[in-house]
Amino acid sequence: MTHPLVLIADSSMRISSSRKPE
């Protein structure tokens, strides 16, 4: 079972990476 916090952290990290102009 995955914790909701992990999902939130993953989403946050993904959004941060997506927003990062590379």
Automatic annotation (TrEMBL):
Compositionally biased residues, Polar residues: 13-22
Annotated stretches, region: Disordered: 1-22
Domain of life: Eukaryota
Protein's name in the database: Uncharacterized protein
